[in-house]
Amino acid sequence: MLKMSGGSGGLLSGRYHGASLQLTPAEEEQLALEQGWRQTQQLLVCVFTCCVVVAAWLLGSMGVSVAWLGGLCLLLLLVWRGKVQQIVEEAVREEELRVHRKRALRQSETAEWLNFILNRWWVFSAPSIFAKLKLHLDPMLNEMKPGFLDSIELTCFTLGDQTPHFHLVKAYEYSDMMTNPRVATPENITSPPLDMAKVSDYQLVLEADVGLCCSDFKMIYTARLGGKMMGANIDIAVEKLNISGKMQFVLHMDNVTKFPHIARATICFIEKPEVWFSIRMMKAVKLMDVPVLKTWLHSLLMDGLITSLVDPGKMEIKLASPDSDQEFRPELSRRDSKAKGVLAVTLSSVPPKLNEFAQVFMEETRWCVLKLGEQKEVTQQTLATARWQDTCAFLIDDLEKDKLSIKMKGRGMLATHTLAQYDLSLASYGLEESHK
Q1: How far apart, in whole angstroms, are the C-alpha atoms of residue 250 and residue 268?
Q2: Distance CA 309, CA 313 (A)
Q3: Over the stretch 377-434, which tens digit does the pLDDT of each residue have?
Q4: C-alpha dihedral over 134, 136, 141, 144, to 10 degrees?
Q5: What are phi and psi of 399, to 5 degrees?
């Protein structure tokens, strides 16, 4: 039996915020080469000018026609207009770009253009967003509803004209060949990591402060208490949502997903956000179950906005088509020789004993994701209160180097989150190769 408790989650988190902006040796070398090229071009122009002056003196001392001097002046003018103007314009462009990147990356970008696009897109797509949210939430709410509820559904969702706003945006990059994420700086914009085309997993990361102060926010649920014949319908409104926190957006790229090679995007808060909202009944109802219903709904919303979306929990958006064939790249295959053995891993879970009221808050879907190199296995998805057991098999190349990663995942109200993560080195378990 594998018992799991809290552990570190996602690959990237808030601890990388504010990383050093110093130049790497490769970036310093590239900058030195560019400066050396400009100095060489300036030196060549100076040498050419001196040669023209010497040639003019020689022609004058020999008493040749003044027309030759005019030709030399014309030649010098053409060179100056070409070379010198090119050197000056390139130096000016690089300096302007450097100043712009320094302002955007070191002082963080305000991203007002992003806020404008998001606002117009959200308002334009409001009906579709409500339909998608209702399609996602209604089945989940009815699966987790307490026993005194016959049904519950989302009937209204709106932000009005106010949408989340982002500022202080910073960019990072990470790949499976890096030990630490690399912050985007003005100097490394055009200096991608070495052998980038050969990495199997690459991530582009944006961190931003996000805020939403929405007095027009309204999310209305219609719940039916009791049975179909003797029950009563009540409307519960969640209003005046306020959120403030630091959010991380990650684009995951891999070499098995077809062009443009973006497999999925993940969104999470890298620290616990500040969340406030109010819940009220749309009309007065004298029922004993109403306070319990409000408490249950409040717990679900807080779980969705804080627990499920705070690192290591995250919302995952799959961008690659699920039914599309993956692109095979032989040069990046798992191995060139036969495997040395097979590792079988058996996972099982025994749920804790809870009373009937506590089980209502434990009814979320859970499963495990196991990875060994490029091999990946996903266990069956079951409720947290259910007993389960599953076995996964992996091909082993090297017992001394191979590592097994186990993540326990859970799906809450709004997002998927990592409950626990373990990275196990096979060399520490005394496994032996058997030749049969």
Answers
A1: 9
A2: 5
A3: 888 888 777 788 888 888 888 888 888 888 888 766 555 667 788 888 888 877 766 5
A4: 180
A5: -65, -25
